[in-house]
Design goal:
With 224 residues, the chain is mainly alpha-helical. It has seven helices and no strands.
Length: 224
């Protein structure tokens, strides 16, 4: 009997070692499988009308591996690490696009603010307390929408930087990720860099953003 128990432990140890070896060899495949599994669970949650807390947990688990790996990689990378790879034209062109989008956002906010103000005044019919109540309710409903849109922009920005930093291969042989990151743990370094893949981050990050945006839009419709 002890021999059988020892054999079972050896089998479990072998399976665990094989899983770890597979994760080290194919981190992106494991990350994609994780994302696919939780995406399927989110579809089930939508069909069965799961509570909001369950939705939030699924969204967090969906994006957790790629987001955690991205935070580790970017936190280990100095701010000026890629400055020598940025051309002067690229620098100015990015700033130009930023100013254009900033102006568009400001213009949209002015128009939207005027529309909201007029709508609140009409709905409240001049009652100051009702105006304040509707205004705060609307602000509380709009804040998650704005935060979600900015989250999506952050995900795209981080993915773009990851593409420059480590490329689009599953496990790049050479990258701009600092050699000091997990220097004594090459297997862990390979897994983290593999999970910090720009495509995986965009897929999971934007999926979480879209899910949160849908939930926020439904909340906004309820307020309106």
């Amino acid at each position: 009997m002890p021999a059988a128990g020892g054999g079972g432990s050896a089998t479990r140890g072998s399976i665990g070692a094989s899983t770890v070896a597979s994760l080290v060899a194919h981190p992106l495949v494991w990350g994609a499988a994780w994302a696919a599994a939780f995406t399927a669970l989110m579809v089930v949650a939508g069909v069965l009308d799961w509570p909001t807390l369950a939705w939030l947990l699924l969204v967090l688990l969906l994006v957790a591996p790629s987001l955690a790996a991205t935070i580790i990689v970017l936190s280990a990378t100095p701010r000026d690490h890629l400055h020598d790879r940025t051309t002067v034209f690229g620098h100015f062109f990015v700033r130009y696009l930023t100013l254009v989008f900033a102006f568009m956002a400001w213009s949209a906010s002015v128009v939207l603010g005027a529309v909201i103000s007029t709508s609140i005044q009409l709905a409240a019919r001049g009652d100051d307390e009702e105006v304040a109540s509707i205004g705060f309710d609307l602000m509380a409903a709009l804040t998650p929408v704005v935060a979600t849109v900015l989250w999506g922009a952050l995900i795209v920005r981080c993915a773009w930087f990851l593409g420059r930093l480590r490329g689009w291969r599953e496990a790049p042989e050479a990258s701009e990720v600092p050699a000091t990151m997990f220097a004594g743990h090459p297997a862990l370094r390979r897994v983290v860099i593999g999970l910090a893949h720009p495509g995986l981050l965009i897929a999971t990050g934007l999926a979480s953003a879209v899910t949160a945006l849908i939930a926020a839009e439904l909340e906004l419709q309820l307020v309106l």
